[in-house]
Amino acid sequence: MSCNANGRPYGFDRLPYEVASYIFELAVLLDDDEKEDDRQPIHRKCIKMPTVLASVSRHWRRIALQYTPSLWSHLEFIPRQNHLKRQKLQLFAHLDRSKKCLLDIFIDLRAPTGVNSAVTNRAYRRYASAIPDILEVLFLRMDRWRSLTIFCDRWEPFIQAFQILNTSTPAGAPCMEILEVLECQSYGDRNVLPPVINPAPRSERMASRLSLKSLFPSGDIMIGRQNILPRLRRLSLRGVPMNWIALLEQLSATAVFPSLHYLELSLFCAGGQAPTSREFSAILTAFPNLRKLALKIFRLSDYKIGRVQEPVTLLQLDEISLEYGSGYNDTEHTKDVLQHINAPTLARLSIMPRTHDALHSGPDPQPLITYALEWCSKSMAELRFHTA
Fold first, then answer.
1. How far apart are CA 124 and CA 155, in angstroms?
2. Fewest Cβ atoms closer than 10 Å to its Cβ: which of 1, 40, 149, 213?
3. Nearest-angstrom CA–CA distance, 42 and 145
């Protein structure tokens, strides 16, 4: 403990452990200027600050390790090829120090920028080899998961590594509030074309994809339908190879998810990736209290011209965000998606170009704007068309 010339501790070191611990907790809190639904589950400050605080002095280290377990509840795994072993050990150390606190888990599998494809593929293979060991340890604490965020450039190299997420668990993730599984390949790298016909049955094509079954309680325990993921408030799926059939089975086992207010389904543009009309309706029905819905480069796999669909009524839906510029029948696909939604209290429908170039060289957005204006007139919603 640091002392002044009179042998007395400096100001901070004289504080009771409880007060000092609370100040440490405030040091890793995010700013409160974001709305609850927009707030991200984890921040770099949450990851680095605990180690910084514990490195100041022996006294501060004791406060951080013994009296402030919540400091260590933000778990990050951003693998680098030459440091995988050390990074895994660091994550496990943070996990032990978090004691019984709820956990925010952040896994970033994006390859380093500025490297060639051979180096990138080699990195992906090493990253994928580390994932099962990490998830096996984290699964033992699934009852404490508050958020799970997974980033990657492409999902193909990691599908097998994340198969453990498709296994049944007794209690699931009862404390889960935020789930984000995101493919971050730039939109410019995608060529969105009419879907390629695959003769295999759809159930076979879906079998190896992510179902997230582990987050839902298995049928072996007695649990109220309303208690399945009771805290889930934000769900983002972006370009993920989802097993929509299995996910629909999980959603059907629950009456509703009343706490979910934000849903994103983005980069589901090819027929084999996207849900069907029935599956999309079931997803909306499971989340009756939605406030924000983001459908960016999204279409349905069983798109039909002139389909008449019974819409799902979402009484609290306030905002819908769309993107255009996929180069493949934007207006008809958007019309097909929007007719699944009845939002009588909608305030805003936002439409933005997929890229800056889409505004100038992409498909003519005017038919989409015309239809969107007609659709918005049903609820007196404002149409916001972004030009950049």
1. 10
2. 1
3. 13
- Residue 225 and residue 179 in contact, taking contact as beta carbons nearer than 8 Å: no
46-79 residue pLDDT tens: 677 888 888 888 888 999 999 999 989 999 888 8
From 279, 202, 291, 284, select the one nearest 247 (Cα to Cα).
Answer: 279
End-to-end CA gap in the chain: 56
Write down the pLDDT at residue 271. Answer: 62
Please, are residues 173 and 231 in contact by the beta-carbon 8 Å criterion?
Answer: no
pLDDT digits 0-9 by tens, 14-44:
888 889 888 888 887 755 444 544 445 455 5
DSSP characters over 3-38: B-TTSPBPTGGGS-HHHHHHHHHHHTPPPTTS-TTT
CA distance 268 to 305: 19
290-321 in b/e burial notation, b at 16+ Cβ within 10 A? bbbbbbbbbbbbbbeeeeebeebebeebbbbb
